[in-house]
């Protein structure tokens, strides 16, 4: 198992990608620390982890708050004594509006979660990761296009990529690797709902919306949460021990990079 005996911390755990990362990590032998604001979601994912025979610790966490983030670190060390990987998955969607008119305060708020909170949490965990630890930032395929209304979203994710690359350089001498995973579409509950909404507006079957979208993607399918989580597990594992400062696109060939 790729993560046998490892301890993986996942922030932003919800029913989609955060859950998939936690469960896939457990399947590969890791004990998991789950951080998110919504305690009920943490408990649901923890049950799945323990059903796989691994330990799960839940910590209600607001990563934009210093004290809350520090408590996540303290609880992790009290429970396991060490940390092997940190996955920064927490995310806030900025307004989808042109940069010429977007609300600046709303953009600033998204940056707080998407960039500064990831920096805060990584800095707090660095002493525990030194000597072989891994950090994985969850980014987005928005890096690869400049469509209208996505400007603020791209700004925050481009900043997160710059953060990861700079941390890779700074933390490399201490043996800490920092990489990014950039998903495209994620075929989970949220996207399924949205495609259903589009289908109802057009009076067509949701499968038609899926097929039309997938037709422009090399593999003719949309990546599922588990497939993206597998890339995260790879980067957190010893198989990626010589990889740092990289961004792995997981989009079934929607964009090439």
From TrEMBL:
CDD domains: SDR_c (cd05233). It holds the Pfam family adh_short_C2. Signal peptide: none annotated. This is SDR family oxidoreductase.
């Amino acid at each position: 198992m790729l993560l046998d005996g490892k301890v993986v911390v996942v922030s932003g755990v919800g029913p989609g990608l955060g859950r998939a990362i936690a469960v896939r990590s457990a399947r590969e032998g890791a004990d998991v620390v789950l951080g998110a604001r919504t305690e009920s979601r943490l408990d649901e994912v923890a049950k799945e982890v323990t059903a796989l025979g691994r330990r799960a610790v839940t910590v209600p966490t607001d990563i934009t708050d210093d004290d809350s983030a520090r408590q996540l670190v303290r609880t992790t060390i009290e429970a396991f004594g060490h940390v092997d990987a940190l996955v920064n998955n927490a995310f806030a969607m900025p307004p989808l509006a042109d940069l010429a008119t977007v609300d600046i305060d709303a953009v600033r708020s998204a940056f707080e979660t998407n960039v500064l909170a990831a920096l805060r949490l990584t800095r707090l965990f660095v002493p525990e990761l030194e000597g072989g630890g891994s950090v994985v930032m969850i980014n987005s395929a928005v890096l690869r296009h400049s469509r209208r209304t996505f400007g603020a979203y791209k700004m925050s994710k481009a900043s997160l990529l710059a953060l990861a690359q700079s941390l890779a350089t700074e933390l490399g001498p201490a043996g800490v690797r920092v990489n990014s995973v950039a998903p495209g579409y994620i075929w989970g509950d949220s996207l399924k709902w949205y495609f259903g909404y589009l289908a109802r507006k057009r009076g067509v079957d949701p499968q038609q919306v899926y097929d039309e979208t997938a037709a422009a993607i090399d593999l003719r399918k949309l990546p599922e949460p588990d497939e993206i989580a597998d890339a995260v597990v790879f980067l957190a594992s010893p198989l990626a021990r010589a990889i740092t400062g990289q961004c792995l696109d997981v989009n079934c060939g929607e964009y090439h990079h």
